[in-house]
Write a structure and sequence with these properties.
394 residues; alpha+beta; four-stranded mixed sheet; three-stranded antiparallel sheet; 12 helices; 44% helix; 13% strand
Length: 394
Amino acid sequence: MQAAILAGRTAGGRVYGYKRVVRLGADGERIRGLIEIDEGQASVVRQIFQWFASGLSSIQIAKRLNEKGVPGPRGGQWNASTIRGDPAKLVGILNNPLYVGRLVWGRRHWRRPPDSEKRERRYRLRDQPEWVEIAVPDLRIVDDALFEAAQAEIRKRKRASSAASPAGRNRAKHLLSGLIRCSRCGSNYTISGKDYYRCAGQKERGTYGNEISVRKGPLETATLAILQEHLLTKDHARLFAEEFEREARRLGQREGSHQDAAEVRLKQLKTELANLYQNLLAGLASPALRSMIADREAEKSRLESSSGGSAPKGNTAPAVLPPNGELRKQFRAKVAELRASLDDDATRPEAAEILSRLIESVTIYPDEPEWPAGGSGREDGGSGGVCHKRQRRP
């Protein structure tokens, strides 16, 4: 593969803007890796660079191309990610150095399992000095000025994005991450901006017509309302009381065992101190003896202060009220505050994982749907849409 690159031929798959060239070598075999510019696709590449350099986003560019009916690199519709790519990996239309006549190879080192010839889909990005770069001026599609203008725009937007989102930090996982679906294209709804969900298909391609954005708060509240309804039953209240009592008993037993151990240790310390003081009175004083006395006196003081001298012996489990008393009120209050409790930074990742096992999907309909049999609920989505929640069977 490296020999092909050094000879000015490609060693990878197809690149948008180029077409394969069929040419036979002296031995009658086809010479692999020969490409030439496809003028039809090359004009699309130049237009993408011009639009981006003039200020359009990759999402707006993808939408324009799809509206014009221009086929994407794989024959389907354009995605914003196909245009934007990743500058660090030199992938994406805007980052491909081949468009300015530079053929780069060896950016990634693919890992291979030691006991198999099959390549794993994992790699590391090599340092730039390890890359192989060859000049191929015949394959230039974009001039240097336009390419650099697009790169400057990428750098400028990256700085603006980093300033808006501190240090490029990962966003905290949301309660309904991966569960919200678009009824029109089946794409996920993903977080957009501060607290809105938006169809990823519409965002990336702009052709499905579902421009409904749904506020996170009302959608999560409406979805969790179904869980609240199923939680507020006599059986769950009874289960809550039983678990509360079991945990209180366990904590009481643990406290009692700790207290018993502390009392045993206090007796040991008193005996040891009495013996040490006898040695001290007998005139056997030494730095080591004084240090042993000081250590044991300090431990004895800690144990006495922690026990307070007032805790009764044995188990101290608190009395548990029956489900129809104060405990039942506490249970209802916890369920009523379900969203606030689950959306806490400390519990959100675990809560989101649990919800993904309880909820199959939350589907957003831009217009009123015909509800499937057995549907589990519908709510106003908050921005003109309607959401339909489907729970997993227990």
